[in-house]
């Protein structure tokens, strides 16, 4: 009995229809990246576990897919640990490699390993799958694509501005209306400082991150629970209720944070980025948002997040500046900034809002119906000529029933079929049928190409 | 002490230079596939071990990279086997998934699993990495790319012809001179039959496969060793020394194989394919070659192999017809034919023969040198305009030393840099420097784009 085939939980096959749409998204994004001088790299699916472990927290270590060593892998395992079935400690003895968990750590590893070949600032993009042994659920996969763009080796704020321009262009190109939220880790540190709770930065940001969801009152309650003094909470209120334009908010914030060096630096950075963005042709709204705190332990300056306006789906792109990404691999004091486009979520938005231009679904432009060996062989020649002129052409390979051939053309969204029987062969013509309208025309072989360039 | 980063043996990073060249190869190949109506699919990196095991022989099973189950994986392992350290039998208890070993088995699995969504004949291409725990050596990697094109669900020889056209176009496009070798499994079966050794088909083909390398005498010795009668070996001689044109060889072979039904069918198939190819505009030489026996246990009709003429590197593309690929997954009697382009070998040939067109190495077209914040901010605006007009433009993000900025532009092969100081800002111009010739010109901002479209 043959096995019924299936694929691992949380993984996906991509059919031609899906591939064409995904490639449209990736190609659109890549084209923008390239217009700004970013270059592609790729890293191996497998990394040494040394490279991966300890970079994503304990939870992340558990979610790494580990590769079993080849050959007699149990040979090196400890008898005692095997007898105790201590999976945790045996893992390191029977596995040395894992599948990449994100593109950031491999990128840091790449930069350190190739530092002498690269010219800095190094501007790269990378679009590859990553793997996580997460519990699969709707919209969350065990294999999914990341699409990262980073510049490393420059602390100029021009880079932050450029990433905002890129986000703007990508989503305009794709037709997704978005807002870009902008914050700065230094501002958050300044706030914690001036309310006298510098050591509680994480608690504070975790709480105010929920402002939109749970409201001011509950945020204050949570802060109180976490042990913030009433004084600190009272001092935080005007910050939480900042409103108005970006520049209005910045002016208020500058006053509030005047006594904090790091906070003032953060305000200056935000102001410079927003001023430069205003001077450029950026159509997407950029909103200062103090509640934005993603990846706080990691980012050191700007923090970005992009939200779709016409669909509830959370963040579809995000990133920020990090000052010591490569330090873990021994290259210190290299500042970088980057963003990651959420390919799967963008795919979901494009599908739900039906944002693909019509040409994205078209495939073969013309199919020759096969009436028999002699007629088919004749069509092969015409097809070869038309392909030389750049047309996408198929000859149906079997002289199957007309209905079957037409169904094939329909399913594949082929716009025109050519019917060539003995009569057409003798006359040097084809009968061209528009599959959309059903209209049929007799066309000379040499005039076929013209009907497609009209 | 920070770790010195490295990647697993037999895997590779691809730098921007390499990526650009590899993408050129893949894009060229894809464009040809699409012109013939082939559509892309992708399958997950991980497959269930059920899907993979037993499909590549015992050796293949050993070379599969297996993924360790998540969580407390030892829990399900047998105490006795663990105590004996029986790696072989423990594997199946602690691992359920493996990395794909080729694209063929996942494709068969895909076709069976999605048979109700697909329209047949199904024409697909697939370009993805595969993984094998082979001993790494020069030119052999543990992660490498395959690039497969197949049509499944049609036994028309038009498909074989189309694949030859595709090979011809791909290698003409890439500029690699090749010869296409063609054989047919049915002819080999016919030969074994008429010399009275039908059961020794494999021994015979393994021996004659070496004809070119070791010569006729040694081939005969090997056949004798394998137990072929002197009668059989004598009867084989005229076949081994067939010469002349394809049609000459076919005429001789037709005579020799006249009493074998399967052999005669094979000759007819070869003749039809070669006749059709002759009638089309195929420039690459197609040579009938009876010594070609690749993947014999697998192919049932045509067998293809492509060799580069200007470099000794073995086969760079190959394939054939298989009549029961999907049978292992329960879908019987579906015939297909396909070829696989050896991406890594093609990459090696392109590199060694330096076959890339000059535009493949170009990246950013124009870089603005950064003389300071004010000048840089001014350049950001000009750069944004130029990108809108389709140019690939960078603004160097830091106001670093001139030499550093120029070195960056040089290393990245940027053709032009623009110098914009206070004077140029006031005059609405830029000083455009051709990095190749060193020539400098003052150009109005609105005329920059024109100098690139000349």
Automatic annotation (TrEMBL), chains A, B:
L-histidine binds at residues 102-104, 132, 146, 150, 294, 298-299. It catalyses: tRNA(His) + L-histidine + ATP = L-histidyl-tRNA(His) + AMP + diphosphate + H(+). It is an enzyme of class 6 (ligase). The keyword ATP-binding applies. It is found in: Cytoplasm. GO terms for cellular component: cytoplasm. Residues 1-358 form the Aminoacyl-transfer RNA synthetases class-II family profile domain. Signal peptide: none annotated. InterPro entries: aa-tRNA-synth_II, aa-tRNA-synth_II/BPL/LPL, Anticodon-bd, Anticodon-bd_dom_sf, His-tRNA-ligase, HisRS-like_core, HisRS/HisZ, HisRS_anticodon. Its main location: cytoplasm. SUPFAM superfamilies: Class II aaRS ABD-related, Class II aaRS and biotin synthetases. One of its GO terms (biological process) is histidyl-tRNA aminoacylation. Keywords: Aminoacyl-tRNA synthetase, ATP-binding, Cytoplasm, Ligase, Nucleotide-binding, Protein biosynthesis. It holds the Pfam family tRNA-synt_His. GO terms for molecular function: ATP binding; histidine-tRNA ligase activity. Its EC number is 6.1.1.21. PANTHER family: HISTIDINE--TRNA LIGASE (PTHR11476:SF7), HISTIDYL-TRNA SYNTHETASE (PTHR11476). NCBIfam families: hisS. Homodimer. Belongs to the class-II aminoacyl-tRNA synthetase family. This is Histidine--tRNA ligase. It comes from Marinilabilia salmonicolor. The lineage of its organism: Bacteria, Pseudomonadati, Bacteroidota, Bacteroidia, Marinilabiliales.
